[in-house]
Amino acid sequence: MxxxxxxxxxPLGKFTYLLGSLLALLxxxxxxxxxxxxxxxxxLLVAVVLLTAVVSACRRHRTLGLGLVLAIPVVVLNVAGxxxxxxxxxxxxxxxITVFFAFVSxxxxxxxxxxxxxxxxxxxxxxxxxxxxxxLWTYLYSTIILLSPSAFQLATAVDPPRASPFGNAGFQQLVxxxxxxxxxxxxxxxxxxxxxxxxxSYFQAVFGQLFLVVFVARLVALHIAxxxxxxxxx
Length: 234
What we know:
The chain is mainly α. The chain has helices at 2-8, 16-28, 36-57, 61-84, 87-113, 120-147, 171-182, 195-233, and strands spanning 152-154, 190-192. A two-stranded antiparallel sheet has the order 1-2. Residues 1-10 and 163-169 have low confidence and may be disordered.
């Protein structure tokens, strides 16, 4: 039994590469600009996140193919948006990647909940799910701003979040808004003004609280159940 447990708890699990790509995307977003090199690097990072997300979460053959079908248009639209500068291309891209993240998050959730015991890989999967949710709302906020540039109001005299997901005043600002909302920090420097922006914000806040309460409780209960079974076997 000890050999089996040690083999299941591998240093690099099925979610490790996804976590690495997500962290790389979020960290690089803080330093990117709008120049062609930055745009190219960021597009490549987004493509890596999409690929690792599909491979990590969609383990079944049919869902893997469907995940790739959803990922390819996202990559194409991502590049086309910055080549053409067309706002509607950005809107379609954001809607497509939002659907993709929702699809991947569902299968990632199923994969994590299917684990019979809490391992390091299970915890990594839960962290990936949380980060994916933050990115999902990031692109949702981007879509809202594209359709209504005055949807958010800033307390300080700086440029509002831009529709473009590149640059410190663009994608990084929306990532900041997303995770600050999801953790309910409430700094007050970015305020949703329009009804769609307010609705998306409070839904994300509710999701963030439910995720921590329900999901962490599930992991703790599973860990206790496994510990009791082991004590019963001994």
